[in-house]
């Protein structure tokens, strides 16, 4: 008996990664080989059969897609087929064919669908020190390094008081054009003045750096926290006969005045809110 079931002679997958990655299309061996890519990658499946077929289908647990015959097949009419789909989840696929004078479809290839993961960006403060004791008026320079497998969209740094229930505030942000964003390693420096209007003497604060890519999943990497302990005015006290005593007294007076002005401003804003 002559076998009339068409079989796959040649096949290819053409995989276009999501636009945000900035990656080019790649081609690999097609069915029955596995197909692999990031979520939302566009997949074109090209198949050449050894004989004429009436229908060809791409089938997964979640969808069934009809292959389209090639427009310029010439003498290969009914043998060259193409289908388009999108990678959404891992699993398996089948290619089913309906041959001439047949009333049923037969699976002629099956393979795995593998979903690649877009890694979370990495970011860290470069300095090994994670605990700083600082003086009011001092300035810290903290280097930050970040990287991502496809491109960085932004790096930012937050500050909060060391209390666990204290809200964090973004104090610095670097944005990069994209997608795909900044590829490779990104290095930035945070110039942080220990301003008494923000850093109250005697209090502790926590800095943390974050990095995001352009993935629709909003992948966000975060650094290890850095703790700042601001010296109290008592810790800064020096002897009256010290040559620097006058300068320190002036500094302490300026810090007290700045904090008092900040308190007046807060009270004024509170009263205005009450009036409104």
Summarize the structure in words:
This protein has 276 residues and is mainly beta. It has three domains: 8-116, Immunoglobulins (Immunoglobulin-like, Sandwich); 122-235, Sandwich (Immunoglobulin-like), CATH 2.60.40; 237-276. The protein is built from one helix and 18 strands. It has one helix at residues 245-275; strands spanning 8-16, 26-29, 35-38, 42-49, 55-60, 63-66, 68-69, 80-86, 91-98, 106-116, 122-125, 131-134, 139-161, 169-175, 182-193, 204-213, 220-222, 226-230. Strands 11, 12, 13, 14, 15, 16, 17 and 18 form an eight-stranded mixed beta sheet that branches. It has a five-stranded antiparallel beta sheet with strand order 2-1-4-8-7, with no helix packed on it. A five-stranded mixed beta sheet has the order 3-10-9-5-6, with no helix packed on it. The longest helix has 31 residues, at 245-275. The protein is rod-shaped, with a radius of gyration of 32 Å. It starts with 7 loop residues before the first strand and ends with a helix.
| Continuous helix count | 1
**What share of residues is helical?**
10-25%
- Radius of gyration, taken over Cα atoms and rounded to an integer in Å: 32 Å
Report the CATH C-level class of the largest domain: Mainly Beta
Amino- and carboxy-terminal Cα gap: 93 Å
- Structural class, by secondary structure, is mainly beta
How many E-type strands?
A: 18
Unreliable stretches (pLDDT < 50, length at least 5) are 264-276
Residue-averaged pLDDT: 86
Q: What descriptive keywords fit this protein?
A:
single chain, 276 residues, mainly beta, Immunoglobulin-like, 5-stranded antiparallel sheet, rod-shaped
